[in-house]
Each structure stands twice: as structure tokens, then as C-alpha cells.
Specification:
about 260 residues, alpha+beta, DNA polymerase, domain 1, 3 domains, 4-stranded antiparallel beta sheet, 3-stranded antiparallel beta sheet, Integrase_catalytic, DNA integration, Integrase, DNA binding
């Protein structure tokens, strides 16, 4: 069994490297027990020597190690839902397929195979796109952390056919509300839908309604808490004000404003 290779020598269990660039000699242990990994470490050391970065520790980071570091760093800044969603996608799809790869070997070919596997297993194109958006964020984190000099892969997003939003024709509004009243188990839903139709409120704005924002004298409603943080004064249509399901009266209106 060979115990040497150009620039490498086996000492005990580990391969040690020795190289010289521009008169500067560097040697040490690669901490690798297999020759392919030792060769990769040797090339990293050679690059560091050429770039004058020998004082900075260099190591080969796997995709799994990088993902774990990224999740740890961002756990405190991401919302719980965002973090759980990202962790689940990475654990379920990315790590089993490419987790053992050195991050520099996560090539476009490897990424293409990973995405094809996800689609074959039933993932939607949208879910695959979201997973790779997360993976791209991790690659950018690796670049900022000096694990990579550039992204090792580029993969265009899958084209997703957008579904048109369902629209209720104006002439069918009464039928729609009547059907809603029959099927909605929660009386608050009947109120919120009417307010969203009558005032054009966003869902979050309807859920955040307040009694004091109604003006009975002028029959207006002020959106005091909106997505864009702007206060909007909206006229309340007569049909909405007088509707028994959504009249702006705490004793009649079903929403606990």
C-alpha cells in the first residue's frame, strides 16, 4: 500500500501535507484518513498560500455542516414558522441527498439531480423553488463566511403556472353571501367577509378592526392599523351599515372588536 503522494505523506492514520510556493514552505496534518480528501485539503492549503491567507484556518465544510451552522445562526432572527419550514425542507430533501458532499462540490449537476428527485417524489414546483431559494441563501452565507469564493451552482427557477384568483361577479354577490351564511359555522366569518367586500379591507385589516374606528355620524371607518402603516378613511356603504350581520354596533356586530 502506497504511503506517499506528491505533496502528501501518510503518517499513522492521517495524511500530512508539505508544499512550497514562492519560497515559503508549509506542512502539517490534513486530518484526513483518505487520499481524495487529503488531496482536496492540499489544494486548499496551496490556494491559501498563494492568497497569503495561511494565518486563517482552512477546512473543507460539508453541506450538512454548513446547513447546521446556517440554521443555528438564523434561529434567533427568523420567525418560528419560517425557521421550522426551512429546517424541515433541508432535513427532508437536501441533507439525505447531498449532505455528505463538500460544499464546493455541490455543482449545478448535483443540484439538478436533487431537484429532479424532489419532483419525482411528489413535491410541487413551487415547493422545489422555495427549497432552492433557501439553499441559495445558505450558499450566500457560505460566501460571506469565506467557505466559498463563488456560488458552486446556478439553477434557474422552475416556471409555475399561476392559478387565477376566484372572482365573484357583482350580480352574484347576494347569492354568494347567502351561501356563506348557510355554510359558515363561525358568525365572525360572515362579518369579516362582508367588511372585506364592502370596504376593500385586507384580511389582516379586517381581523384588526376596532369599534372606535367607526364614525356613526359620517358613516366612515378609519383603518388605523394597515399593512403600509397608512391611516385610511373609508366610507361605509349603506348596505353594509344596515346589514343585520355586519351593522357597526357592538351589540349587533358579530366580531369581537
Amino acid at each position: 500500500m502506497a504511503t506517499g503522494h506528491q505533496g502528501l505523506k501518510r503518517v499513522g492514520r492521517f495524511w500530512h501535507y508539505s508544499l512550497k510556493v514562492n519560497g515559503q514552505r508549509v506542512h502539517g496534518s490534513t486530518r484526513a484518513t483518505d487520499l481524495p480528501t487529503a488531496r482536496a485539503v492540499l489544494e486548499e492549503k496551496r490556494k491559501d498560500l498563494l492568497n497569503g491567507q495561511l494565518n486563517r484556518p482552512s477546512r473543507i465544510v460539508t453541506v450538512r455542516e454548513l446547513v447546521m451552522e446556517w440554521l443555528t445562526v438564523n434561529k434567533a432572527t427568523f420567525s418560528k414558522g419560517h425557521w421550522v419550514s426551512a429546517e424541515c425542507a433541508l432535513r427532508r430533501w437536501v441533507l439525505p441527498q447531498v449532505g455528505a458532499l463538500p460544499v464546493k462540490r455541490l455543482t449545478t449537476q448535483e443540484a439538478t439531480v436533487l431537484r429532479a428527485h424532489m419532483l419525482e417524489e411528489g413535491c410541487s414546483p413551487t415547493y422545489a423553488n422555495n427549497t432552492f431559494r433557501t439553499l441559495n441563501a445558505i450558499v450566500q452565507f457560505a460566501i460571506r463566511s469565506h467557505y466559498l469564493q463563488a456560488a458552486p451552482f446556478r439553477l434557474p427557477k422552475l416556471r409555475v403556472q399561476r392559478k387565477p384568483r376566484p372572482v365573484v361577479p357583482v350580480l352574484r354577490i347576494k347569492d354568494f353571501l347567502a351561501s356563506l351564511d348557510r355554510q359558515a359555522r363561525n358568525r365572525h366569518v360572515r362579518v369579516l367577509v362582508r367588511v372585506m367586500i364592502g370596504l376593500g379591507l385586507r384580511e389582516s385589516e379586517a381581523l384588526g378592526m376596532r369599534w372606535e374606528w367607526f364614525n356613526p355620524a359620517e358613516r366612515t371607518y378609519t383603518v388605523g392599523k394597515a399593512k403600509g402603516k397608512e391611516a385610511r378613511v373609508l366610507p361605509v356603504p349603506d348596505w353594509l351599515w344596515c346589514d343585520p350581520c355586519s351593522a357597526a354596533d357592538p351589540e349587533r356586530m358579530g366580531v369581537p372588536c
